[in-house]
Write a structure and sequence with these properties.
Chain lengths: 358, 163
């Protein structure tokens, strides 16, 4: 397939609003990269620049080492799958999938082979004579993918393809995209605001905020070693708890609680003794213990886990969310006591992770 | 064409409409329109004002409706519409011998002078229009008939393979 290099890419609109700042990324051959971030962070703009649907204000875009920054979209050999499917309602599924090749005046027999092969991959063979209106949302999205597959492009681009689907269908289609990627071994760029999609699909994730890349890494890296408070708060559900704490020798002292540090943590925080830092704790890293007294405000049983919300100290203390293993039956106002199993440390001024934390 | 190409071409018929037959049928309608426009614009006083021209007008309307419906049928490989189109195509040939042939040999009085109802040039033109219309309709019927046979055989072979 192809490698893709985005070098120092900026996007500045005519009204001088800058949507993307110095975007750098090297996409390896056959890699599935997910751009994730909240609405307005510049992820779709970046994808559209790669597709050629938006001009690149500054920087370079290389496909297989060849500069395609100024190449028109039609000559980039990339296929894009949109959230809205963009299917032709008056054409059958077969005709929709064959359309781009028909426009290129390819041999009808070759088109036929490619369409049947794509339909087979996507499980659409029995739907080829139907019109898009006769298909479910998930099937329509598969047709949109099929239309890309038949073109055999160098790079596949997905712009929030699952956003129109309900939760169940989203999960199923997500698995299909993953299988498709494994089967085609294609280079793919995938945009989503859904962190679950990002974590489950990506070989590597690019987490963005306000037009800036916050972190690039594998899903585990982003979850386990977030680069800053933004990434830590964005990746993970329920989101991470954050507390302002003071490093006091072998312990951290926060509002209404104090927790002791391991030797490794002490070493990590050696430069921060007697200084304030931000402590991050994922809800799933909280267990019942003795360090943090909590007044429970709600108890949500999820089957395998229980989500317990409360306030540290009294009812007016800082909020805490804990995802405890098993079934719990805390009542509102109950006193509980937790311990932080695993901690993340962030510099209070820069919000960057304190290296070696955890 | 290799056997594989032929097989693929047949397999394509499962998903691609028979647009050749449908387009031929549309052409049949178009040339019929040329025919009756040519005929009705003739300036020979009241020569054509008789029951035959009434029937002709009604037939043209029915013709257009029937051929259009048949074109949709053949588009979807319905064999029976081949018979419909073939009969209508043959009827176009027969029509040459009704109004055009009668008018071609006739004279009428216009403003006290004897006038030839249909000159050779107009007759030739009308003849061509009806003949081409008939050819298109019969062609459409034949193409559809052959393709229906091929598709049927192909589907049968797919069924056998599936079993």
């Amino acid at each position: 397939m192809a490698t893709l290099n985005l070098q120092h890419i900026d996007k500045i609109y005519d009204n001088n609003v800058q949507a993307v700042f110095d975007f750098n990324l090297d996409v390896k051959d056959g890699e599935l990269i997910v751009l994730v971030g909240p609405s307005g962070c510049g992820k779709s703009t970046t994808l559209r620049m790669v597709a050629g649907l938006e001009d690149i204000s500054a920087g370079k875009l290389l496909l297989d080492g060849k500069d395609i920054t100024a190449t028109p979209a039609k000559d980039r050999d990339m296929a894009m799958v949109f959230q809205s499917y963009a299917l032709y309602g008056h054409m059958t599924i077969y005709e929709n999938m064959a359309f781009s090749l028909t426009l290129r005046k390819e041999n009808p027999n070759v088109i036929h082979k490619k369409v049947l092969a794509a339909a087979e991959i996507l499980g659409l063979t029995s739907q080829l004579n139907k019109k898009p209106a006769q298909l479910s949302g998930g099937q329509r999205q598969r047709v949109a993918m099929g239309r890309s597959i038949v073109r055999n492009p160098k790079v596949f681009l997905f712009d929030e393809p699952l956003s129109n689907l309900d939760a169940k269908l989203r999960g199923a289609t997500r698995r299909e995209i993953l299988l498709l990627h494994k089967r085609l071994q294609a280079t793919m760029l995938y945009v989503t605001h859904d962190q679950t999609e990002a974590l489950t699909l990506a070989d590597r994730i690019v987490c963005m905020s306000m037009g800036h890349v916050q972190q690039v890494g594998t899903p585990l890296e982003l979850y386990d070693s977030p680069a800053n408070v933004f990434v830590a708060s964005f990746i993970g559900l329920p989101p991470m708890n954050f507390y302002d704490v003071r490093v006091d020798g072998g312990k951290l002292v926060g509002e209404g609680f104090q927790v002791s540090l391991t030797e490794e943590e002490k070493h990590t925080l050696r430069a921060y003794n007697n200084k304030e830092i931000t402590l991050g704790v994922r809800p799933e890293n909280i267990v019942e213990g003795t360090d943090v007294p909590v007044t429970v405000s709600s108890n949500e049983n999820l089957g395998m886990n229980t989500l317990v919300h409360g306030h540290i100290g009294g009812a007016k203390g800082v909020r805490i969310s804990a995802k405890l293993k098993g079934w719990r039956d805390y009542k509102v106002g109950d006193a509980a006591s937790f311990t932080f199993d695993r901690k993340h440390f962030f510099d209070k001024e820069t919000t960057n992770a304190i290296k070696g934390g955890g | 064409m290799t056997t594989e190409e032929r097989t693929i071409q047949r397999d394509r018929m499962r998903f691609i409409k028979n647009s050749m037959s449908a387009n031929l049928a549309y052409l049949g309608i178009l040339f019929n329109v040329f025919y009756f426009v040519s005929l009705y614009k003739s300036d020979v006083d009241t020569y054509y004002y008789n029951y035959l021209i009434g029937i002709s007008i009604v037939y043209n309307l029915v013709f257009m409706l029937a051929v259009f419906l048949a074109s949709e049928g053949v588009k979807n490989y319905k064999r029976n519409y081949s018979y419909v189109l073939a009969v209508i195509g043959l009827a176009q040939i027969v029509r040459i011998f009704i109004i055009p042939t009668q008018a071609h040999g006739a004279t009428t009085i216009v403003n006290g002078a004897s006038v030839v109802v249909m000159q050779d040039a107009q007759f030739t033109r009308i003849l061509i229009y009806l003949a081409v219309s008939a050819g298109c309709l019969i062609g459409s019927a034949v193409v559809n008939f052959i393709r229906c046979g091929e598709l049927e055989a192909h589907l049968k072979s797919l069924g056998t393979q599936g079993a």
